[in-house]
Amino acid sequence: MVAGAAAIDPSRWPDVARPPRSSGLRAAIAERLVRRALGGLPLYVHIEGDVSGPIGLGGPRMTIHDPAAFHRRIGTGGLIGFGESYMAGEWDAPDLVAVLTVLAGHADRLIPAALQRLRTAFVRRHPVAQRNTPEGSRGNIHHHYDLSNELFALFLDETMTYSSAVFRALPGDRVLLADAQRRKIDLLLDAARVGPGTRLLEIGTGWGELAVRAAERGARVHSVTLSEEQRDLARERVRAAGHGDAVTIELRDYRRVEGTYDAVVSVEMIEAVGVEFWPTYFETLDRLLVPGGRVALQAITMAHDRLLATQDTYTWIHKYIFPGGVIPSLEAMETISRNLTGLRTVRVDGYGAHYAETLRLWREAFTERGGEVDALGFDETFRRMWTFYLAYSEAGFRSGYLDVRQVVLARTGDGAGPSGGGEL
Q1: pLDDT greater than 60 at residue 121
Q2: How many angstroms separate the Cα of 406 from the Cα of each of 48, 49, 222, 227, 300?
Q3: Are 380 and 6 in contact (CB under 8 A)?
Q4: Helix (H) and strand (E) counts in the chain
Q5: N or C terminus of the chain with fewer C-beta within 10 Å?
Q6: Hey, what domains does the chain have and what are their CATH numbers?
Q7: What global pTM score does this model have?
Q8: Using one digit for the tens of pLDDT, what is the confidence trace for 208-250?
Q9: Cα angle at 16 between 10 and 21, to 5 degrees?
Q10: From the CB of residue 81, how many other CB atoms can be counted at a distance below 10 Å?
């Protein structure tokens, strides 16, 4: 633990408060694998304790304060242990994003090829309780989005938009973040052809900014969410903007929406659907959309081979941040929509660099307002967890491991049914 760090509450953070018990052999194997993995990377790794000194080829600095605990956690929990070790203060970095970007950029080389072939034998699987059934989805969404509206307000901009902005120029500027978020929303509404009289369904309300901007165009908006905190604040914001008659916001699962709509917009919600329910998600879009209608999705994506390799793996992000979440590939989305629905992709735009800048601005704001995070009742371990999450995500986009796409789909013909068979 970092000198002077506050004690970790074991009732709140049982797997962080103390390193797991593991055999000396397992820890020794983990240490050997870690040294091998880090040794060939452009990192400067400083290990305090029995061993001290540089490893690797220079680059950003990573300091391991408690190597014994660090290796025990990785030996027992793999990358989950790596994140928990950071939460515990057992390692640190002056530029956390830079370190994580190096690791993300070399993700396919961190584990020896022989061990990668045994991946399915030792990786943890998603807990059954986190399946994205209607009941499971409510719990998964509650875990993250119902933390505290006040917490999110500390680092988001005035639009309270929690997804990638689209800047006119990079790098992003915090003063212009709100404008970049509105620009992103307008791009999606334009793509879905939302205008006066449009019957618009929004799947995933957030805090209401998209619904407000759609209503300003003259649309009638039906927005659904599973977050009670977001629903309540979104309703307040819609009323304050004078659009209470044009916007309806419900606590409802997307699978239970009825009716027909001229357009559907969903921003970074598909990541919470789960692989098992992706077919249901696209079939629902197809069922609800009128012939000639359009769907505009914003989705975080990864390469298809990475999706296939990792989709069943339970990770640190699942355990602490987004239970039940799986990031799709563009290929997976297009295959499912083509094989199971009358929806066809008509346009795709990528904004990965814009998400990296959005995350940077969020992370900097979160760090600057750490005292206010504490005042809301969140402890130091939570702040380290959230810092790691934001930095980890930013690194994913900076390294190219992740992208974010705006995908536009249209109903073909009369929109009736699939065009053929096939598998993901």
Answers
A1: no
A2: 45, 48, 21, 23, 9
A3: yes
A4: 19, 10
A5: N
A6: 14-123 (no CATH), 129-411 (3.40.50.150)
A7: 0.92
A8: 999 999 999 999 999 999 999 999 999 999 999 999 999 999 9
A9: 100
A10: 25
